[in-house]
Amino acid sequence: MLFCMASLAGSSVVWGQCPELEGSLTQGGLVWGVVAPGSRATLDGEDLDVMENGTLLAGFGRDAAATAELVVTGEASCRQTLAIAPRNYNIQRVEGVPQKTVTPSAQHLERIRREQVLINAARAQQLQRPDLLGAALTGFEWPSVGPISGVYGSQRYYNGSPGRPHYGVDVAMPTGSPVRAPAAGVVTLAEPDLFYSGGTVFLDHGYRLSSAFLHMSKVLVRVGQELRAGDLIGEIGASGRATGPHLDWRMNWRNRRIDPQLLAPSMPLAPVP
Question: Which residues are in the M23ase beta-sheet core domain (predicted)?
Answer without folding.
Answer: 165-260
